[in-house]
Structure of Protein-glutamate O-methyltransferase CheR:
Amino acid sequence: MLAALLEARAGHALSPERMWRIETVLHPILRERGYPSLEALVVALASEADRNLVDQVVDALINHETYFFRDHAQFLDIERVALECLRERRTRHRTLSVWSVGCSTGQEPYSLAMALAERPEHWAGWDINILATDISPSVIRTARAGRYSHFEIQRGLPTRLMLRWFEPDGSDWLLRGDIRDRVRFAEHNLLSDTLPPGPFDLILCRNMLFYLTPEHRSRAVTRLAAALAPDGLFMLGAFETMLTQGAAFAPDPEARGFYRLSAAEARPQGRLQAR
């Protein structure tokens, strides 16, 4: 029941190695709602009488793992390879559009915003737009607030950047407004919602696709290809690959570790419509 619900709503596969998480992540809902057991919760879900309960359970089952500058070596590639490559390709117009897909509580797009803010002269005169989306309303609310616990701040964020871009607020840390304003957050289901206005010069879709079923993963890849600029760059997670995901993307010859649209996809007649 829970596996079918998660796949239907989010396209995620509840793999055997993730089964142990079910009772742990759903325990707060059992306590809050007064259900005596997981079985009682499943019975309530089957009736579909409480749509808020369904949303709450799906949200809890999705893995929202993230942290600042996640996979540090890979993030350095975003700064030193992708952004510099795109800077050369966009010198004439000086515009850059980035989409962070499956952004969770916002650490990835905010890390990017901080990295750009650290080099103000390098990006002076550029119009840079960062869109960050996630299927979960709760994590988008957290991301927009830019408020993080001390534990969240310590995960991946250098002390120098913490002191420069965050202010203490009680037991939490609040991101400065000028960094928050650099990122636009929105709820979005990659599998079903209309694609956001593009095309995007850089799409970050790290550590999300491998949670999807093969069928949904294929659809997601097709839609991501439709959103990427013909000479834009696409990045997966450190342990993900496009080798088994069809021919929409190919390794970019100038930006190692990144993908670009394949020759057929990059031609105007080969681009997919956002649907």
